[in-house]
Amino acid sequence: MPDTALLLGGTGSLQRTAELLATHGWQVTVTGRDATAAPQDWASYGIRMVVADRTDEQATATLVGGGFDLLVDGQCYTPERARELARWSRGCGSTVVLSAKAVYVDGLGRHLNSPHKPVWDGPVGEDRPTMGYAGEAYRSAEGYGANKAEAERVLRAEGERVSVLRPSKIHGAGTRQPRLWGVLARVLAGRTRMAVRRGDLVESTTSTEAVARAVLACAQSPAARVLNVADGDPRPARDLLAETIALAGGTVELVDVDGCECPEEVGRLPWTLDMVLDTSAARALGVTPTVFADGAAAELEWLRSLARRAPDGTWRLPERLDVGWPDLAAEDACLDLVTET
Ligand SMILES: NC(=O)c1ccc[n+]([C@@H]2O[C@H](COP(=O)([O-])OP(=O)(O)OC[C@H]3O[C@@H](n4cnc5c(N)ncnc54)[C@H](OP(=O)(O)O)[C@@H]3O)[C@@H](O)[C@H]2O)c1
Fold first, then answer.
1. CATH no. for residue 139?
2. How many Å apart are CA 247 and CA 241, to the nearest integer?
């Protein structure tokens, strides 16, 4: 009998995880609210898609039934959801939950959604303190990391064999926040210059491949643990941008616009924090490090396959992914100002 895996909320960042498990012989079931979000080639992997809302406790509990060899929850945002997951974990061989690096606080209690950004004295390890929780709404700047941190505590106290993964910003095919779209959009528009703000920041990236490898490693060694999950090649944001442009097939001059008085959004890159995750614990578990390009190439190929030209000449993504068309006029105004002075 093959090992069985159930991925809750698995048609986005967990797409690659479903595929990696399937290629390792797992019998994979994925849930989501929209069956059409499942890639068409999943049938060839033998991956089964079931429509079920994670917020419907009864429906999800019925699906979990007597348990799976592996249960992965990509939609655990609150302590309430964590309590459900902890209960289900007791009937499963192992359980993996997607938490986030947003749980970490620095020595002054600052976190990544604070008005003042946290300052780190080196790569951030899993033993760093995490946010407190006082009932904040999870869909808020203060509440996202606080709820995740409390969910982790619930799972540690009440769950069994639960691996908590803390990714940085995730990129790859299928993600619902396709952060590389802004770059591909500019390449599609034939841009030759691009504004760059704060290009020196080094923020860890997490490819969906990194998530997939970490999930597989956890499934192969069930235990209660916490793991940072990130690519093994953290680099300045400007370098990640240049690599993304090259992967997208573009030739674009990068122009630093730090210090100009143009709106802050102009030149804002997907990587906005100085924060590198220490991934030595994942490596010690046997997770082979990924590189940024592993997810970037896959995300760009996927976005290109979905992008359609609108009558006004701009390129658009399907509605469920629509992150808009960049404000190229504002960028041009800024570039003209910066290169004139
Ligand atoms: N993306 C990042 O940069 C990032 C970074 C750190 C941590 N995380 C964590 O990773 C997890 C995934 O977040 P994401 O932003 O990357 O999203 P995602 O996985 O790209 O997309 C969300 C997935 O969950 C499904 N989903 C959403 N609501 C659902 C519900 N109520 N019931 C069942 N399925 C549902 C979506 O499909 P349908 O909409 O079709 O249902 C989709 O498959 C979250 O726990 C998040 O906190 C993400």
1. 3.40.50.720
2. 10
Asked whether residue 27 is assigned to any structural domain, the reply reads: yes
pLDDT-based confidence at 200, cuts 50/70/90?
very high
Ligand 1 atom nearest 30 alpha carbon: 43
The answer to whether residue 146 sits within a structural domain is yes
Domain of residue 286: give its range: 4-174+205-232+274-292
Q: Is residue 309 part of a domain?
A: no
Which of 176, 181, 231, 303 most suits a substitution to test ligand 1, by most atoms within 8 Å of the C-beta?
176
The pTM score is 0.98
Give me the mean pLDDT over the 143-170 stretch: 98
| DSSP code string of 264-310 | TTTT--S--S-B-B--HHHHHTTPPPP-HHHHHHHHHHHHHHH-EE-
**314 C-beta closer than 6 A to ligand 1:** no
